[in-house]
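Justification of computing resources. Each target in the renewal requires a structure prediction run like the one illustrated here; the chain below, 308 residues long, is used simply to show the kind of job we budget for.
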Amino acid sequence: IIHKAPATVRLGDLEATYDGSPKRVTATTDPEGLPVHITYSGADAPPVNAGSYEVAGTIEDANYDGTARGQLVIHKAPATVRLGDLEATYDGISKPVTATTDPEGLPVHITYDGSDEPPRNSGNYEVMAIINDSNFIGSVYDQLTIAKAILTAEADDKIRVVGEVNPEFSITYSGFVNNETEEVINTKPIASCIADISSGPGVYEITLAGGQDNDYDFIYVSGELTINSITGLGEADSENYQIYPNPVLGRFKIATQDKEALNIWIYDLRGNLVYKTRPSGREVNARFLSPGSYILKVNNGFIKLIKK
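Resulting structure tokens:
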């Protein structure tokens, strides 16, 4: 029996980077030039995708015998991630960022302060985007900023007569998003006025302050508290405005030489606004009013109105 002589196999090119082409391991022998059969995790075909593969190189020769084993590592190829939509304004809806990759179309896993859910509330969020692909690797970090929405708070105009306490001040809001209401405000603004029970006739500013919210920034619009002399109502503007009939049952008309369009406010005697309108003509419907006394403001004039 003549046994095969031992031979040595050395494997090369055991490390590569994915580029879409097969990655063949090379083999050299001692003695030189012996044929070697190479397998990759048991397969004859050299692998393409990134990963680790067990490599076996076996000499196939009638007179020599030898085997070598190693590991082929195909590294993931580097890829680039770019994030978009990193600035937004609160609107009550989640704000996911967008991601594009080079090469195009690679899947990307995005987290916001460690959470998979895109945020909806205003604030700054650390964004991490990692390519989730078997053949490519890449990541990027950035910040998503969701700015507060603008909410306008306007103090409602009020009216009262001398010697009464101030009416309860109220605020009208505009700018809520996603069907939200003032109930979502963390700390509502407070309306105040320097006028008190001893203040004389005049117009006093109703100011707003103190509002705070996680998702809204406030713009304040002041209102006016008008304090009238009881004896002066119905007479101070009699030269400019007259209403008839007064007392009124249903509709009333306004007689005036003023050519400007009329702005009408009707207040109860507590100073609460009951009705506001800008009629196309000179007639106003008052059927909805409950019987009693009211203060009618026509442009900048005041008249006492009695409803039967």
